[in-house]
């Protein structure tokens, strides 16, 4: 069954026009543009013959009317501030197009439900929509969640006039599987010439804040051997981490020292304080545990060698989420049938699929990102690759349905 | 000839009360407190029998009336914001007290001129007072100098109603030598149990800004070998510098990576930009030149290894200033006569003496800093050490006068 490329691309471009910013999109969760996009999407779903609603969290859900058993296809239509046109939106419009194709084909074996989750990007609360859909109790988190500029999530939800709406819930009796397509957001597909990424797992993430505390001495009058240089310890930690991590992980293990801050930050004062923010990602819980051990051990070594104190705080610890192997195989098979070179790969970024897979079989498909870029107005994928991704996803779902949609 | 400890300490405490902040002093150049302190000082000088004036730059100068040939004793009475009570002020009151002692002794061999230079700390223009005293042409710099909060030096000078006053100038026919006493601002004297530091030279300073430029990639989706990590290069540079500098300098060479800043500074984004501020100080021009060579070589190595670009900018390059050896010997001799253990040492910080020594023989004497602290309200020196320092300085000047004040 062929998808209709022109219709797919036209809808993607129409969605990108809502909150357009240069060649990208500025549509943070609950912004006017985000809510307008969700209204647009609900209408599109209704035109496609789905029973569509926006739930109390902002999730847009289009329900196949005549089906008891469905495949859910979706992603999110919110963006980071001044982000790209594809991150999230592409996966949602794939769902819309595939729902239309399946309906038009008259297939009765299984319906397609389409969903756009709310606030995947964490403007207020990351994965708000998919977590709510999956039945997480979010009451306490919603009470306290705020955006970076201090707006509360509760106010944002009220402003969008959503709280009266019913919540849409995952129902394993209805929802047989979840498929999410997404741009890769990295350079692997492009640099290897592959067109389809078959996601094996979404990496787990351990994020750390390290605080080294020394003494703010005069950098001219304090001999080197009498210093307690918090900055020196922090640079040493970052450097040792870069040297030692490769031995712990595999070729797909990644880490990043993303920020470093010195106090007082004067060229002529030995830093009294150095704050380091770093992160490790891998699909293996064992590698992540070993990485945490390494971070703590190196922090202690550097603190001792620079005669400073250190605190290591784990800010954030997400477990890796393996995708359902049987579904991944269907994507691989669909790609092969359509002559699209594919590669198995981890997802280095978080996605709604990592929430949903806790409850029902789930799979992710990546298409190439030009230059590996994302979260930026220059984020892009060629039309040919976008169309091919949708076609492969539709074929994988046909294969799933042919297997009896278990 | 004995100084009068009670009078010395009482004057120091009276001066510290002007702009007092907790146990320290907040008296930045041209602040109300600074100008009040200068008025107070001018009165004190007049009471000591000196012809005293505040010049157009804010320098307070007390001139020995009946002398054709004088020793200038001084330092500065401005402070860093919320600084200590001794940095600068002690050296000025030493001058006042010694002028009184010499006058009271009826000595006719040589007079004492006392000076408090303006803005040594660089609230607007570092060493404004001593540079003006020495005849530097400052017209262009005064035109553009601003404080950190955007106040112009010209406005500050006008507000203090100084521009009408005459400038006080160094006159080598009158001014035979310059002596400046100061707190050490470091821990060497205290930790070695010495009471008097005989300054051999004021270090030269080379300050650098390094800017590494990479690519802001997603830290989850970009494989390690495809990154252009500006932060990694910056940490590597700081670390290599700490490892390699000891081989270049001597035990008194110091350096400091005082600030580091990443952009965008997000834990999940590979830093596109890392800015490093560092400084090297030594009394040897050869060591400083070699250090600059090392900084530039390491920056290039780190940039290459992290596949980023780097710019190295020399922000500031002050040459070392050797003090006059014959005068240093007199301080050493005076300390020995008075039973005060002394040590020769470089000054790791800049002082007005490094300006004045370009024109007339100059010397500096240090007293111990408790805990090595300065530029902070906790800056302190014991009364006993303050009194001993003044006594040693007076004795050194007596020895200088006995030599004929050449």
Helix content of chain A: 25-40%
Biggest interface found: A-B, 59 and 59 residues
Query: What low-confidence regions of chain A span 5 or more consecutive residues with pLDDT below 50?
Result: none
For the biggest sheet of chain A, the summary is: 9 strands, mixed
Report the β-strand fraction of chain A as a percent range: 15-25%
Calculate the terminal CA-CA distance of chain A, rounded to whole Å.
21 Å
SS content category of chain A: alpha/beta
Q: Kindly provide the radius of gyration of chain A, computed on alpha-carbon positions and rounded to a whole number of angstroms.
A: 23 Å
- What oligomerization state is this entry in? homodimer
- The number of distinct helices of chain A, counting runs of at least 4 residues, comes to 12
Averaging pLDDT over every residue of chain A, what do you get? 96
Give the number of DSSP strands of chain A.
Answer: 15
Task: Sum up the overall morphology of chain A in one term.
Answer: elongated
Helices and strands of chain A, in order, run as HEEHEEEHEHHHEHEEHEEHEEHEHEH
